[in-house]
Amino acid sequence: MLKRREFFKFLFYFLFFNLNARYLHARQKTNSTKVLSSLIFNKFLLNINHPERPERIKYIIDFLNHSKLSGLLEYFEKQRDVDIWIKEIHTKKHIDSLKLNFTLAEIVSRHAVAICLEGVDRIIKKNNTNVFCAVRPPGHHALNTGKDEGFCFYNYIAISARYIQKRYNVSRILIIDWDYHHGNSTEHFFYDDPSVLFFSTHDQFAYPGTGSPNRKGK
Q1: Residue 24 · residue 69 · CB < 8 Å
Q2: Which pLDDT belongs to residue 1?
Q3: What is the mean pLDDT of residues 148-160?
Q4: Residue ranges of the domains in the chain?
Q5: pLDDT digit string (tens) for 50-95?
Q6: Between vectors from CA 14 to CA 11 and to CA 17, what angle results, nearest 5°?
């Protein structure tokens, strides 16, 4: 029997790639859609039996290749200074703690931020119509605790939202989080911010046990 987590993962890939196969085949020829990733994610492994492992990215890459959608894939390996944008969301104390105590995770997470901002740039500048950022570790649980929360170190979505607002003068942002888990960090950072509308669909019994529909923000 499939666990709920595995079921949702299977359902997402089936709906996103299989049902859109003909559409995506056409778009890879026109460069409209891109899947951005990096080889650096192959290096990130908390421990051999941990669910946060390189295979999670490899699963996506293999799926694209076997579906003849490899034209959508692009590896982004350029160095990019993202510190100013990380600091829009995360405190110096949190960042310094990650660099000291979770060095590899911080480096990998920083590159994930760079990929997400690259995706934003491409869409805003109309180089691509849409971009899927295949990055790890995840981000939507990352608070300013000086350590990971739910395997998350930096909140890429929150950082990207602030980047869009300040770099491109976009006044209002909509964030839709359809992960199996509640995006508690994203909710936390924008709960009192009327310029960002965030909602999450998630399993109410899964980690971190938050996400009550009674919480409606400002």
Answers
A1: yes
A2: 46
A3: 96
A4: 4-170
A5: 677 777 888 888 888 888 788 899 999 999 999 999 999 999 999 9
A6: 135
Pick the catalytic residue from 141, 181, 182, 202: 141
Task: Count CB atoms within 10 A of the CB of residue 109.
Answer: 26
CA–CA dist 57, 170 (Å, integer): 31
Helices (H), 87-155: 92-101, 103-124
> What number of CA atoms fall less than 13 Å from residue 173's CA on the CB side?
24
141 catalytic per annotation: yes
Taking the C-alpha atoms of residue 93 and residue 76, their distance in angstroms, rounded to an integer, is: 29
Output helix, strand, coil percentages for the chain, rounded to the nearest 5. Answer: 45, 10, 45
Let me know if domain 4-170 sits in CATH 3.20.20.370.
Answer: no
Report the pLDDT value the prediction gives residue 2, as an integer from 0 to 100. Answer: 47
Cβ partners under 8 Å of residue 217, min gap 6: 187, 190, 191, 192, 193, 198
CB-side exposure of 18: number of CA atoms within 13 Å?
6
Q: Could you give the CA distance from residue 184 to residue 122 in angstroms, rounded to a whole number?
A: 28
89 token code pair: 């969301």
Give the containing element (helix H, strand E) for 131. Answer: strand 130-133
- Tokens coding 118: 């690259």
DSSP state of 109: H
Question: Is the preceding peptide bond at 51 cis, omega within 30 degrees of 0?
Answer: no
How far is the C-alpha of 171 from the C-alpha of 193, rounded, in Å? 11
Tokens of 57: 């990215």
Compute the residue count for the chain. Answer: 218
